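Let us walk through a complete example step by step. Step one is to write down the protein sequence. Step two is to encode the small molecule, pyridoxal-5'-phosphate, as a SMILES string so that its atoms and bonds are unambiguous. Step three, shown after the inputs, is the structure prediction itself.
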Amino acid sequence: MTMKTNLTRRSFVKAGSLGAVGGALGVAATTSAAPAVGKTGDAGTPAVLGGTPAHKGGWPRWPQWDAASDPELADVMKKGVWSRAKLVTEFENQWAKMIGNKHALAVVNGTNALSAAFMELPIGPGDEVIISPYTFSASIFGVLYQKAIPVFADIDPTTYQIDPEKIRAKITPRTKAILPVHICGFPSDMEAIMKIAKEHKLFVVEDACQAHLSSIRGRKVGSFGHAGCFSFQTSKIMPIGEGGAITTDDADFKDRLYSYHNYGYASSIAPGTYASTIHSFRLGNKIRMAEYQAAIGLVQLKKLEAQHKLRNENGNWLRAKLAEIPGIKPVRLYDGVDSVSYYMCPFIYDAQAFKGLSRDKFVKALSAEGVSVTGGYPNDPLYTQGLLRTTFESAIYRKLYPAAELNFEQYKQKNHCPKLIQTFQTSVWLNSTPMLLGSRQDMADIVDAVVKIQRNADKIAKA
Ligand SMILES: Cc1ncc(COP(=O)(O)O)c(C=O)c1O
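Step three: the predicted structure of the complex.
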């Protein structure tokens, strides 16, 4: 075999396969040494050590808005109908259709979408809700507002999603619901979760706040459970700034949600209607989406599917390329997953394959190469945080539960999730919402950056 020592990283990327490069260089891609490629023959000097970044020129802007071609927002502002009216209804209809549910209710944000869903399910004090621990605090607020107990079931570290077998192990006569979180936009194992829910007559509320348009065998996440909850916060795939939605096929549930989101008025009362006969006939809230939010949402919806397609094309390419680098394992997809929102593009980092370079130093070095990346959520699990400790110490919880059940040390031990802890230490999240809208060359730059760091891992570790 001829040794092509002048093979550059760019030409490798064009050749399209790490294996091909490894072969050309007589280096198997699966060995612990990264392919000897790069502009200077040693993959160049890492940017963190003063070299030139692998990626220059930034990434597509996020969120995106073109005031000239998207006049809808200005139109609403000029018209002066700013509170919930026709555009919100139109947005709900389109969102329900997009997700594949009969109904959608638009609300102020994802946090309140989740809280409203729990408010309108028969879940309350003494009940348990089984939850993925790999998430953000807002996922569990709704459970706590209902004065129920969150029970954490560990994740599968290869998929980052709640492990269905761990859910089974946590079911008790008090379990009322399962709350999977499609973290990073990668679908949880909904087929297995729905089977468990059916067997045990449990509600399923999907936290799909990061998973717009992710799908399993053509079915969108958020449409599997009793309710799907979405966020339209700025960083999300469907950015409105703030906004959220609950999707469902249950008309009665939707009616109750509607009433709840509009002061507890009858669901037949249109927002903005005032009459002496209108009263809050039940406890409600006011979490209505505004017309200008819906106007932004309707514009974003027009672009969403094309962006989703591009993210999936680039994401699938990038994951395949990264998988060929020793020590990098993109998270695994469950059987049947056919598209991913790619809110994040996460992978599992093995420091051993990078000469012991710590995950945090790797993330720092990759950022210096011009890649937008973090290590994911901070290392303290939700079940250890002040949120739950102070809730358990609150007067209302102390009235509702025996002291033993609120013993926080015991609660932490009972909910300990070792696979989650392992994941905190090895996860790397590429900020793919904007990055995967880049060119194929931009994707190649990310691969180049990781290879460059691997080739120079010992120098970076010592620096
Ligand atoms: C997994 C998850 N759940 C819930 C939320 C809450 O959504 P919002 O910020 O719209 O209230 C978020 C948003 O960051 C999220 O990522």
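Step four is interpretation. The chain has two domains: 9-60+304-377+424-462, 72-300.
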